[in-house]
Specification:
Blueprint lengths: L10 H6 L3 H17 L4 E5 L2 E5 L3 E7 L3 E5 L1 H7 L1 H4 L3 E3 L2 E5 L6 H26 L1
Antiparallel strand pairs: 1-2, 2-3, 3-4, 4-6, 5-6
């Protein structure tokens, strides 16, 4: 259940390739991210739904048994205690498909990533002056 490998043009197109119950989970995740990062741009990057603001914030994807959430290594590190109940790796967390998403935690991770990206953009801007 990894969706269409030919490429997607939008998050809507990506989500539409999944069964209805998975679409609902993905839309819930998308709405949570949008709420936490209202100024972020939606796009497809690495063939995954992506939110970007001064660089990529987070990616997500649906798989057979989990929803992959990719908030970059710093996003995982900052919340590693709370994420420790989930499988994952350096920049990835896997939320089981048969359990409710931890939406409040996801929102806090996205807000952390927004602050991190804005701070990094400010630092880069100051270096150019």
């Amino acid at each position: 259940m990894e969706g269409n490998k030919n490429g997607f043009n939008s998050i809507d197109e990506y989500i539409a390739t999944f069964p209805e119950e998975i679409q609902k989970i993905l839309e819930e995740l998308r709405a949570t991210i949008k709420s936490a990062a209202p100024d972020a741009e939606e796009k497809i990057s690495y063939q995954m739904p992506t939110f970007a603001l001064k660089g990529n914030l987070v990616h997500f994807a649906a798989y057979k048994n989990h929803i992959g959430f990719y908030p970059a290594p710093r996003g995982i590190e900052e919340f590693k205690q709370e994420l420790s109940i989930y499988e994952g790796a350096k920049g990835t967390v896997r939320f089981p498909i048969d359990k409710p998403l931890p939406l409040e935690l996801i929102s806090r991770i996205v807000k952390f990533r927004v602050a991190e990206n804005l701070k990094n953009a400010e630092i880069k801007s100051n270096k150019k002056r």
